[in-house]
UniProtKB/TrEMBL annotation:
This is AMP-dependent synthetase/ligase domain-containing protein. The keyword Cytoplasm does not apply. Residues 335-408 form a coiled coil. One of its GO terms (biological process) is fatty acid metabolic process. The keyword NAD does not apply.
Amino acid sequence: MHLQILQFAEEVAKEKGKPPENKLELIRNCSAALLPTVACAMEEVLKVSVMPTYAMTESMPIASNPRYGKRKLRSVGMQAGPDMRIMNGHPDCSFLPVGEEGEVVVKKGPVTSGYEFREHMDANPNVEAFGDGWLRTGDKGWIDSDGFMYLCGRFKEIINRAGEKISPFEVEDAMRGNDALKDCIAFAVPHKSLGEVVGIAGVLKDGKSLTIKELRSWCNKCDKLQAKWIPEMLVTMPSIPKGPTGKPARINLAKKLDLEPLEGVPKDAEYSRFTDSRSRHLYEIQDRLQELRCSRSTSKVQWQGEVAAWRAICMDAREAGERSTRRTAANEAQRSALDREIQQLRASLQDAEGEVARLHSMSSSLEAERLRATERAREEVRELEDGEAQLEAELAAARLRAEVLRLECSEERKMCRQVVARLTASQDPDGHEKR
């Protein structure tokens, strides 16, 4: 939006010799970082103070430049709510000193207490989103000695060129100076030997042309980027692709555009996604749909304008659909054959699912039988253990009785010897009793 305002003001200034009159006193941004070149140009053209800020849905705000006093337009500002630090990265939760790049983390203040953990989720989202209570924003940045934060881009958007981490944010900021580009985004292009290289998806100004060779030559002359950061592919488009939230959709853009990986050493490459009028027309319809904006606060006149735009879009889409239907009429036989094959595959799938269910039921029965057999075996072991203990007790009692009998027999033998000894002492050698 800020770029569109700037371009409008520049067009008016070019036509009338002066920028449009306005009563603006302050321009600020939110969410994604404002490109420094855009911020500086807005101040110069509109003569209005620009206040870059930084925020996200989970924490509003995070950082902001002050309205008065020292501002740094290349920075998103100083702490403006929550505690703000630079963390080394997950799972290492150590903090980095001033000037070092890492992940921006926030805590306390307006920061959300966490995400909802729904039943359909495979894992708790808060485990990865928070580290030691700090919310991981997913943004790469650093803080200078004055406490101003600078963003380099989203970690998942960083371009990894043979280990060199390249910020698409800084590449885009440099590309804004090219006279042929109306708008652009930097994104990762696959490379067979380097992994990824820098690509540019750009919208050209009316009457302008640009090749990758011209773009690389311009980059070398202006000396705004390192050699490794210079784009190696240019994709010309009618408009920049955006996601549902209206932000540039740079993630997996190379895959969406069916770009083939570059080979060998870096080289010039040109690619145009919309080579045919039909693809361009459908893309323009999609882009126009994304521009429709209506809410409860929309006025009746605006509603009427949006409805008229919607009808025009529907008419174009209907005409495109009719042309597409005529082109695909010849493929009906092939589609019918594919439908029959799909039905056969579905029938086979149902048979396979039935067999899986039968095997699962059999497995459940076997598991139940195994559990019952295990329980019976455990019961028998317990009975054997009880019988063994009883036998041990009886054996101990028998041993005790035997010992008692042995002692009794020993006493009786001793008494018998004493009796024999007395009898022997009372008889003479002939066996007669002594008188």
